[in-house]
Amino acid sequence: MMPLDMIRQETSAERRSAITSLFENAAEETFRRGEPIFSASASQSFPYVYLVSKGMVKLISLRDDKFHLEDYFQRGELINYHAAFNWPAKNQLAESMAHFTAVRRIPAASFREAILGDFSLFEEVSRNLANAQCRIQERLFRVSSLKTHHRIIDFLIRHTLSTGRRVGFEHVVRPSLTHQEIGAIAGVGRQTVTTVLNELRREGIIHFNRHYLIVRDMDKLRLKMPPSPSNTERPPLSR
DNA sequence: GCATTAACACAGA
DNA sequence: TCTGTGTTAATGC
Q1: Is the link from the previous residue into A175 a cis peptide, with omega within 30 of 0?
Q2: Are A21 and A70 in contact (CB under 8 A)?
Q3: Is the pTM of this model over 0.85?
Q4: Does any strand C atom come closer than 7 Å to the Cβ of A33?
Q5: Which end of chain A has fewer surrounding CB within 10 Å, N or C?
Q6: What nucleotides of chain C have any atom within 7 angstroms of a protein Cβ?
């Protein structure tokens, strides 16, 4: 799995470069948790491509009268890039997952024009998209191969390492996601998330409230995962 | 036995 | 009052 890690490193190193420059003239729009950012089908006539600059965005779809989390995005990631190539819009809704989420957007046609005229930008966008695809594949693999408790812990480790702030020996994730959202990402029920997090809290491995989550002992948290090369020995990707 | 879901209670903003 | 969390019981696989 080394190539994935290499992609990840290169992408994070390039976050300040071509893609960021492309969006820097667009105004930053901010959203609170739960606020809709765009609807892919509604904006089909004049679509935009979005770049997440702060917080988290989820892409959800309605199937069988239930909302499903299709994917979620963090700083430096592109959303709705399909629109630049006239792909038919799915019935998806993008919504802010964090207390303060910020995005910039540019018309899909301008995005297309820019990447077709700049090879280094094209290369960076391709890497960004390859990264998104790897992330979805890995999430799918985890849903099919890990038990529910392990999926929650696996997500917790990845999410903490990618968005947490290290304070001494601890990691602080702030603002914390709701149990509902962790469940949607890990593919488990809300109550199961509550149960697992409470177990970890009783063991002193984590601490949490509505506003933040602290991983007190990352090593102990890692030991909670089954001893498989696919999830513990490999350093996790950023999410 | 494991996991999900509904239902209800409670706390805090 | 609303949202998020804690808990239990019922249900399905």
Answers
A1: yes
A2: no
A3: no
A4: yes
A5: N
A6: 3-9
